[in-house]
Amino acid sequence: GECKNNLFLVKAVFMRFYQEKEIVVLLDGFDEIPINYQNDAKQFIKFLKRSGYFMLITTRPVLKNDLELLLDTFAIDLSPFTRKDQTYFLNNYFSKFAEISSKTEIFVESLLNAAQNNLNDRDNEFTGVPLQTLLLAEVYIEDFKRFLETKTLINGNFDLLYLYRSFIEKKTLIACEKFGDISEDMIYQYKICKTFFALRLVFSEEDLDELEIDSKLKVAKSVFPSMLELIQKDGIVVGETEANIRFIHQTFAEYLAGEWLAENVKNENEEVAKKLLKVTFLPNFKVVRNIFDRILARNCPLHLAVINFQMEKVTSLIDSSHFNDLDDGSRNFLHLIASWGFQHPKRIKKHELFELKKVSNEDKMIEIVRLIPDDKLQNSKDHILESTPVDYAIISKSLNIANLLCQKLKNSQICINVHNLLEPSLLPSCEQMNYLSLYREVINYVNIDPNLFIDKEDRDSLSFIISRGNVIKLNSAISKGANLNERDKFGSPPLHTAVKLQKPEMVRILLENGAHKNITDNDGRTALHWSVIHGNLNISKLLVSYEIDVNVVDLHKRTALHHSIISCRQHQTEIVSELSNTDFNLRDFYHMTPLLLAADYGYTECVNLLLELGVAVDQKNKSKMTALHYAASNGYIDMVKLLLSKGADINSKTTNGATPLILSSRQGHSNIVSFLLNQNADVQTKDSRGRSALYWATRGGNKETITLLINKEANLKANILCAASQYTDKNTIESLLSHGLDINSTDKEGKTPLHWASFSGRKDIVKLFLSKGAKINAEDKGGNTPLYWAIRTNHIQVVKLLLTQSKQTKLPNNCLHVAAKYGNKDLISLLLLKGAQINLKDSHGMTALHHAANNADNAAVLLAKGADIESKNNKNQTPLILAVENGSEDVVDFLLKEGANLETKTSDNETPLIVSAKHGQNDVTCLLISKGAKIRTKDHEGKTAFHWAALNTYTTPETIELFLSKSPDFLELQTAKQETPLILAAQGGSLDAVRLLLSKNANIEAKDCNGMTALHWVSIKGYQHILCILLNNDAELEVKDNEGRTALICAAQNGHKSVVNFLLDEADINAKDKNGLTALEWAEKNHHDSVVWLLRD
After folding, report:
1. Residue 333 · residue 354 · CB < 8 Å
2. How far apart are CA 559 and CA 587, in angstroms?
3. What totals of helices (H) and strands (E) does the chain contain, helices first?
4. Would 378 be classed as within a structural domain?
5. Is residue 420 part of a domain?
6. Which stretches are ANK repeats (predicted)?
7. H helices within 909-1023, ranges in order?
8. Mean pLDDT over the full length of the chain
9. CB 673 within 8 A of CB 707
10. Residue 1027: which CATH number?
11. Domain range spanning residue 1034?
């Protein structure tokens, strides 16, 4: 009432806060914004940020990284409800229904215990979310009332599905009661509409296109006009129109979406449901898929234990009758294991590989797969996606599980849906992560191409006749003179088709009647290649008996023998024996011989056979990798023993200087390291970077391998401890120190182990080194101490330790500069407390505030502590200038509010506005103009900010318009060189700027001090698109500059063939400049041959 009576006052107060930017904008639940509107929301957030408003945005972790990048800041994780918070909240909630508080407390304790016991390892923090604690309370109101009478928690066994289902059903009842008299049909439509709204919120328009939700909602509204009103009465859905519907929490929409998928994978919406289900394998759809899996697996204890990540329960149930259970989608529990494993990122960065391999090896799901005996594994297809567990692992990016399954399954059991192999990142990821078994199967299936196309329209073609297995018709076609070597429209000759379809009788008929036995298809493969790829021993024997050329290579330079290794289908060793006449030294596109491939894939029996057939044991690829290198690196102990028994060089080196011992140490294969050492492998040898086996074992953190190498008297050099300080656990480092390693030894960079531990942020190791006498002020070759590196890498706990551990710790002179640039405000405050000089300048004249020009928080701390806001570096640049140059709009705004000089000038007489325009910082330019920056100031070249804006290709048309709106005469304003904005836009290739300036009637014939027009400049630069625009706006084609050059001469002189070609239609080809040279003569003089030929023609 107060506000309504004083509406004018309220508006006035609000406007005051608005103008002063003293409004806090809370955007709650960013993750709940529909996918279609998320980009719009991001643009709105960027606008708020640019406008200087303080924002608080909440989201679930899935979109945390997106927002951090968008706002150039770090997110704070909100603490969940503790058990104490939950108890307090629930006691208050239920006390409204009871007079005796002790009964309420007993019920709440029982309810929370039940939640902890029933909800799985990932959901047991369910009640840590306040809204979900409320959901639990509302579902259990009636149970609480019964508890007051019976003193027993009747429904103590519940799961996530029960809670959501009960909550939604309860809200549905409430909505119907509020609405009054309502038919069953309307209740049914109400539930369907609510689900459609949920689907629309969770999935994109493109995903839902076939479902035609909008038209179905329209029909529902025409039948029940009050539908929207009814839906909003349940308290779950909020909205004013059908286009503006949201849920009070995203999880309710996700539950309904998951429920819809489960109900529709077997009805008329089956295809759409399957399509949406595949989408749920993306990381931000985990809740939807979790609900879907729970519903389908509700009667399968082992499946549910997998979904719940209850590893002990899974382990116990594997040996029970539930091992063979199938859920409602005919999925065995392996399907679930495969889809809930560790999700690999789409693109793997090189520096992330070490940590990624570690995390994937610790995946709980892969531990379960390792426990299952190989003969019990079932790679059957489900009835939903018609996919195997291997498929599920590939779709969900659980590549470690896919690889292990391929490794454990027999070849005849492996079946992969070829469509799942089309993801371009799959093969690179397999290579990077060393998933060789999966890699082989992917290569195999891509090669086979199960979608074998037969031309069904041409029923008289040999391919079609062969596909039908009609021997009589084939003989008839041959007798009538059919061309046995004619390829079909898919590039496959009849012989290949017969082989691929595994029809040996037809293969024999074709060969006996003159089919070319060595004919190749579009991939360069013969029929023998395909028989091997399919693992068909009988056809392979048949083809060899017809003396087919076994040395033919395909487009990947692979013989049939190569494919017998790669494909590893049935009868591998028998097929290899059949191909024994192959040249064993032929290398494929990747420089691999059949022996090297067999060693890489771990086929010991095959390697033995090849060696018996006479293959040299020390064959090498381009990197000088031998079979022994591959076996040692990949952990194949039996193969290592075999190769050494056959005379393999134990100390052979690759081009990088790596021996088998170094490679096995690097991968942590302690059993192989032990064997190689017992066979007298050289423990002291180093690779090309001077790193020994012990170094790589230390870097990998493999304690057992380290111990083996030390016991063999491996050389304990300085870089060993330096590597250990970054990668190895404390116990191993202590073990290394016990062998007498010098704590203050240095590596080639002059860094001590303390440097590296500080750099890596390993507080416990830093503490250990200091206790062992490490020099706290030691300097590396760059003059930097361990404290510097801890500051540089923003490890504040290590910084605190180094500063408090010793009174002798010296603050590096540039420590505050480094912290301002790379660190955070807490680190800056700590260093200032320890005596860092706030206005100290480095060799470039930069203070810490200069270095904080891209971080508003750091700048704020420094200014609060007395930093000089007008301090200038060696180029006379203030912090404001650098913030402008970097495009740090929030820092620019902050510095201006703190009183920074808006018109400060650099050594080149550039103001902040000129710098902003020069660097194409559109948002900052707009901000500076809004703050009153002078737009007519000129720099040392006589250019204003507008001149630079016209020149820069990143300048937006809006920025150009802004300048012209402030001063229309800018349109023809000249620089010291008489360049107009149009000439500068032409120089810079700014297409949008040229168009806009011409639309404002800029003088197209204006000349600079050299008599050059915009047309001359685009001809010199080769900007054909701008040339077109200028000529379309009647630019004079034959105008000459001070040197007498036309546009054609300029283009020819600079070798721009496309521009010359464009001008030739109308330009005077014989025009001469002041030196009497034509366009042709300039092109000849400057050796622009293509232009010369064009002009001569």
Report:
1. no
2. 9
3. 65, 4
4. yes
5. yes
6. 490-522, 523-555, 590-622, 623-655, 656-688, 689-718, 749-781, 782-814, 816-843, 875-907, 908-940, 977-1009, 1010-1042
7. 912-918, 922-930, 945-951, 957-966, 981-988, 991-999, 1014-1021
8. 87
9. no
10. 1.25.40.20
11. 1013-1097
